[in-house]
Amino acid sequence: MRSLCRLLLVGAWGVLASTGWAREPSEPATPGHTGSDRAEPQRPAARKDPAALIADQRFRRNWRLLLGAHASEPWLGEMNGPARAPRWVNTSSGRFVLHAFCQPHGCRDNNVVLLYNPYDGRIHGLVHRDGGAMLIGNPPPEVALDLQRQWLREWRPPPR
User: Fold this and answer.
1) Are 100 and 111 spatial neighbours (Cβ–Cβ below 8 Å)?
2) Per DSSP, which regions of the chain are E strands?
């Protein structure tokens, strides 16, 4: 009896999801659409300003947690050094918000490039300090390569 109730519940949930009951709250209702014959809607995070995503308290808390003991350094934990405005970038591993910043009066030797995916909350970073580099957020190999490429573009651009 228990398995029959569970089966009915799962089946009912599937019907509700396929008829549009499971769409995101910001997505407008579209009568008559089941969701299967149209492209995936643009997620709310994709419409947001990258600077607003980086300023989000949830992002900042997660960033400090990933830094661990290094979060006590203000330029790292608070990201309060010189920086360009955060921007969207397309990498080989997906679409991310790129944020690059550095330590005040020490940009050449102490800087960071981070990639933030607001869709799932993943944060990956490359912290370059005094000639050494440290990966943050346990990035997969393809994301680690993207971080290295972005770091080179931001902090070691080719001479013109």
Assistant:
1) yes
2) 87-91, 94-102, 110-117, 122-129, 132-136
- Residue indicated by tokens 């990639």: 115
Non-local (6+) Cβ contacts of 50 within 8 A are: 85, 86, 87, 88, 97, 98, 99
Higher pLDDT, 64 or 33: 64
Among all chains, which residue has been given the structure tokens 């990498």?
Answer: 91
Where are the chain's structural domains?
A: 1-41, 44-155
pTM metric for this prediction: 0.68
Picking from 23, 24, 27, the residue whose alpha carbon sits closest to that of residue 36 is 23
- Which one is the CATH code of 44-155: 3.40.50.720, 3.40.1420.10, 3.30.160.20, 3.40.50.300? 3.40.1420.10
Query: CA 146, CA 160: separation in Å to the nearest integer?
Result: 23
Is residue 139 within 8 A of residue 147, CB to CB? The reply is yes
pLDDT tens string 19-29: 333 333 333 33
